[in-house]
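DM from R.C. (forwarded with permission)

"hey, sorry to bug you on a friday — could you get me a structure for this? deadline for the figure draft is monday and I only need the backbone to look sensible"
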Amino acid sequence: MTPSARVQAAIDILDAVIDAARGQGASADRIAAEWFRARRFVGSKDRRAIRDLVWNAIRVCGDVPVNGRAAMLRLAKGDTTLTALFDGSTYGPALITADEPVAEGGIAPAWLVDQMAASGLDADEQAALLGRALLDLRANSLKISRDELRAGLPVQAEPTAAPDGLRLPVGTAAESWPEFAEGLFEIQDSGSQIACMALGVQPGEAVVDLCAGAGGKTLGLGAAMRNTGKLLACDIDRNRLSRLPDRAMRAGVLVETRLLNPGRELEALADWAGMADAVMIDAPCSGTGTWRRNPEARWRLDAKALARYHTMQANVLDIGAKLVRPGGRLTYVVCSLLDAEGAGRIDAFLNANREWSVALPGLPAGRPHAKGWRLTPFRDGTDGFFFATLVRRVN
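My reply, with the result:
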């Protein structure tokens, strides 16, 4: 493909991404993958170049652009090399006219920038949310130590702050390695690994991962438990939860999975009421801390969606609290840096549940924030997280 044709291809993909963002459709990753699948003639170098153009354009547009061309023109602003590729050539984008729309720049829609500022995120912290995500893995301590794994990998890997964490060069196809097939590691951001540490699970405990999804944190909890005690992974999403058994088998983690019906979760968990030593709540949230991976997600969020997340977060906190025995604990986690989803949820819970108190565990990265702990891309090189560990008083 010519450089101009690459630009037009990126514009075409951006049009689909923008339409999906407005209609809560497929992710940018999925849209791009389907676009390339339908055009198998596009070579690997062209694919990389087109993807870079798409994601760079998404990152520089604060609000939803009117179309893909407007987004690409924002990226081209001040870049004479890119601007020159709007040359009207065959398969390339049309010449630029003086009156056509150019997308607005910025970190996010204005209302969301205000929310981030109110949550203590300065300009540097906000900008880092749109950087390029690094690739971390967690050595599976049930099978291998971090040092042993590091020594045997085909690329150079650097230890992260997480005790079992390693960081690989961006773009490494780690899931194609035999070490992955053997269950020696999982792909997991170091921030997610540290959030698991906050629950402090021990061998022999009874532990519930309430919003387990596909089980990334579940597998980390199982490794910390050394396959002793009881580990239950739950979710209301059948498709996501169905991926966990195969992952657990590969990792050698013993875990029970349980599909929950929305609105009737406590009925399905009646046998665990007041019995759990520890509960992990990886709550549904806006995902502002994961924009490095999904920058178009900020175009999908509005005040109504945020309010819906608040309701879901309060609900899972209430459910999780009912599972914890006196003296037990729960860790509430969101991959969001908005106080309305993190610190505010914890304050509301504690005000309504006086038998609970906060425990601030010592962790290898991050810092205290309100009544919990915060990790950010700017300061910690991880995805953005807020989490808080709460302890139920013994009556």
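R.C.: lifesaver. The chain has three domains: 3-106, 135-187, 191-392.
me: no worries. The two ends are 71 Å apart (CA to CA).
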